Amino acid sequence: MTERAAQTREAHKATLIGAGVDFLVGMAKLVAGSLVGSAALIADGIHSFSDIVTDVFVVAATHFGRQAPDRDHPYGHGRIETLATLWLGGVLIFVAGAIAWASLGRLYAGESVPAPGGWAIAIAAIALLAKEGIYHYTMRVARRIESRLLEANAWHSRSDALSTLVVLIGLLAAQFGFGWMDAVAAVVVGIMVGQVGGRLLWESSQELIDTALPAADQALLKDTAETVPGVRGVHELRTRRVAGDALLDLHIVVPPRVTVSEAHEIGNAVSRRLREAMPSLADVTFHIDPEDDEGQTAHSRRPGLPLRDDVEALLDAAWHALPAWRARVDLDLHYLDDRIDVALYHAPLSDDLDPDTAAADLRRAAGDLAWMGRLRLWQGPGRG
Hints:
The model has no long low-confidence stretch (mean pLDDT 82). This protein is α/β, with parallel strands linked by helices and 384 residues long. The radius of gyration is 34 Å and the shape is rod-shaped. The strands form two sheets. It has a three-stranded mixed sheet. A three-stranded mixed sheet has the order 4-5-6. It is built from eleven helices and six strands.
């Protein structure tokens, strides 16, 4: 929890610094663009101010999205960051469309701008350097705290830097008499911003529909799990991503006659090793299988085999008169291959009844039990 709080503070700091830079360069672009009549520079200034709106939204989303799980949100609040990234992509596409539409109108009307002068070009160049610096700073923080939303916001800053570069080229062209290049530059800005918005929408939508991790990551997880002693195989491995976290559930095949506690500890060892191999793995849910039932997705929907209470009642009806059953001290049931293997622990039998005869009597009496698998007799105290 302390680490998550520290990551949230880092995200807020990076975003607020970016918002401050956005305000300064946005004002400078708007003022310069209005004075020299540059549609591209004005459009770029609006783009910078749109960054401030998204910065505020990012601060709120990282605050709520990185809160701990609670009763209503047992998997955490990471989807808040996903929704915010989706919204951010939509805003970028809207801004891109507005810029491109207005600029195409000016281009069609044949409007151009006079030479902007060296000071307007200098403002555009300074704004370009400032936004590129914010991109690199925000991206470093995003990768350190593994925040896809903050990474998206960094790309938003990069899109502003790229658009300013195009505007700078347009201003330089206008300075040398090619005024129509200003409108062309603004259209290119709109296209670039729209591409970034589309990419964010695509990535967020993939996360919302629980798209699996890349095949290479899935292979790494499977191979890692199968290196744990006691694991005979791994299947039904499913992954998804929530914000910067990866979630995994898988079936682990263990030897069929290990105890429940040993099988569970094997699963815990798998979970620990997987988290070491992939630090972004936030949740691991494992299911223990005594045999490989891959592909048998309808297994739990079938009528199934009788459980212990019913098994003991049926065995008692068949074996109630047999000495080995009456001397029982414990009973193990193993559900394998759609049958039930029975391990019967009994107290010492009379001298005139050897174990082989006792086992033969039990098997013969249980002949009508269709679910009966292997039978093993053990003399001793049982499992304890």
